[in-house]
Write a structure and sequence with these properties.
The complex is a heterodimer of chains A (about 300) and B (about 475). Chain A is mostly helical. In chain A, about 75% of the residues lie in helices and about 0% in strands. Chain A has a single domain, classed as MetI-like (MetI-like fold, Orthogonal Bundle). Chain A contains 14 helices and 2 strands. Chain A has a two-stranded antiparallel ribbon. In chain A, a hairpin with an 8-residue loop joins β1 and β2. In chain A, α2 packs across α14 and α13 runs antiparallel to α14. The longest helix of chain A is centred in the first third of the chain and has 35 residues. In chain A, about 35% of the residues are buried. In chain B, β1, α4 and β2 form a beta-alpha-beta unit. The longest helix of chain B is centred in the last third of the chain and has 26 residues. Chain B is about 50% helix and about 15% strand. A 5-stranded mixed sheet of chain B has the order 2-1-3-14-6. The chains are: A mainly alpha (about 300), B alpha/beta (about 475). The interface between A and B is large, with 71 and 62 residues.
Chain lengths: ~300, ~475
Amino acid sequence: MTASTVSARPKITRTQLREWVTFWLLLGPNLFLFVIFTFWPLFYNAYLSMVDWDFMRVRKYWVGFENYVTVLTDRHFFTILKNTGVFTFSCVFGTMFLGLILALLLNQPLRGRDAARAILFAPTILSGAAVAIVWIYIFDPRYGLINEILGLFGGRSPNWLGSQEWAMPAIIIVYIWKNLGYAVVIYLAGLQAIDKSLYEAALVDGANRWEQFWNITWPGLSPVTFFLSVTSILSCFQAFDIVKVMTNGGPINATNTLIYRLYELGFVSFNAGQAGVVAMVLFSIMLVLTIIQVRLGERRVHYS
Amino acid sequence: MRKQVSRRALLRGMVGVGGAALLAACGGGSQPAASNEAPATSNEAPATSNESPTSAPAVVSETGSTVEITYWGSFSSSSGEAEQAIVDEFNASQSDVKVNYQYQGSYEDTAQKLTAGLQARSVPEVCLLSDVWWFKFYLAEAIAPLNDLAQAEKVNLDDYEPVLLNEGLRNGKYYWIPFARSTPLFYYNRDAWEEAGLPDRGPETWSELQEWSEKLTKKDGDIITRAAFGHPNGASYVAWLFQGVVWQFGGQYSTPEFKITLDDPNVARASMMYHDSVNVDKWAIASQDLNKDFLGGAICSMMASTGSLTGIERDAEFRVGTAFLPKETYFGCPTGGSGMAILSSVPAEKQQAAMKFVAYATSPEKTTFWAKATGYMPVRKSAVTSDEMKAFFDEHPNFKVAVEQLPQTRAQDAARVFIPGGDQIIGKGLERITLGGESPEPVWKEVTAELEKAAAPVLRDLEAIS
């Protein structure tokens, strides 16, 4: 077996060599940037996750996997992971589901359609911190807008940001509201790209609206859905600004997510090592998600 | 079979790993995730300057004989204007030193930016640091001892309030000069007090407040529409306010030697008082925004910083009363707020110029001006007894309470101010008890373990320094 492997080893020919040179020349510039801005921070962070450092001391003490043990066995770490999962899933699903419905509505020749599109898209371009401040007022259990509206019907607003049960739903609502417009616009573009003749053919075959949606629209939108799921997951893991301004990860740990925990450890406790561990956890999750997405994407996405 | 790496596989692998890293890295977009991104934060500093173009800090740039220095501060709105006024008057009063004042955000933001600045070797000459932050920079030997600088500037250190000045004293050297110093104060709504038929004073003890609370608290069915008292949330320095309460019950967070003493039954008693006030007897609420709830009438009283006094008096539509903190077994009240530090890495000439500004900003005249404008303590003994301050006290008796309380205050426990993140760790624990309704002992046991872990590097650094 071994002997045959060695003998079967192919000899590199001149053509092959030339191809490799061209390959590296073409790849080089991109790879250079990639290494500096992506791989170097990644490896440096992996190193940081194994030292005890406060961002200031000249010396970094090597502690191996101690930081991992500390962070991963922390009683609240599971809560934080769960929060991240709930938040990401709710936001991605909520944004895309509502985005698709609204896009389908806005794709109809309705009056005021352009105005509706503009209004829907507006929150996407607003600053997260400013949005959060406005929503703090809306959610205020005593003077807030929601309380005013519920008051008309004799109801009373829950203590949104001050209670452990309602804080996460509140953050999710704000996040979906902010990102919905983006999903709508992307879906609208996807809808417009679907060949109209397919619908005509379906009409001839006597397909009803649901059958049209299920057999033409949904498969036709699959590249868009795939794209949106990737970008939404990315932006949900990025959801820091709104959490920071609205709840600071609280009450207690009700809205504490991985990225907020990273901030807490890194820039409140100034513990570079433990923050590095959280970053590595975040990285591992993203790596797994990316692999799944690429696999699924290759198989399921339908590029016409 | 030996597998040969194909170009396609290589590319795919790189895109996969890199893509995930990018996603993870983008996740940290709002705040630098790794320290090597940190310099970007400090680059923003000059942009936030609200006064005149600035030169790069830490570079001696003499124009004529004027030394330009940069001062990073944490005050916005009316306090920020008062601080800017001090800087402007300083610049106008002499031509040797020109100060550029740069607002950095909250105390936390300022400390974060200074940390990043130290990494990027781009720091201001003077920085405002709060009670929980200056020590960290002292440990890193990033801030300079000020005795010689003060002597050269002929600053009379004896005139500073000793309670406040001595907090910045380590190994016989001063590192932290009191500027915007405060204590918690008991604020109450005098109109609500009168309506409830209570005497116009703060409660002597927490038990008395609980007695009074029956007349103050209003309920609509099960829901409290007006609470007698309000607790802030974990992110709002609740561990500072609770510090005094722990002392009042005879406990402490830690000894000065960093031994965590949260297992003291007195700490548990103090925590139970907080726990019961919200969960059992229901005369207090946990507030998201204490000042707003007080001004809006949702709570009748609170403990809050003296630094809020001017704003609250201005904005309240009712008569505001202030009092000493309630007692329990003892009286207990911590000092707080922020002071000025000079960076050790800047050239001596700039340090001296910085000291000139620090001396000016904390001079009897300016500390009087600052105290009147904000509610922070006058930090000089001669300022407290000055005619100007006395006249002001007569006009605003609420301010006098703060100054009278000062001699009875004490410096905070090491666990909150010297352990990195200690304030947040204790605050979160307390929030679990007050808001989450957990019982104190197991919570404090966990908090103790967390604090001990966080204290280890501090103890090691302390040993290295001495």
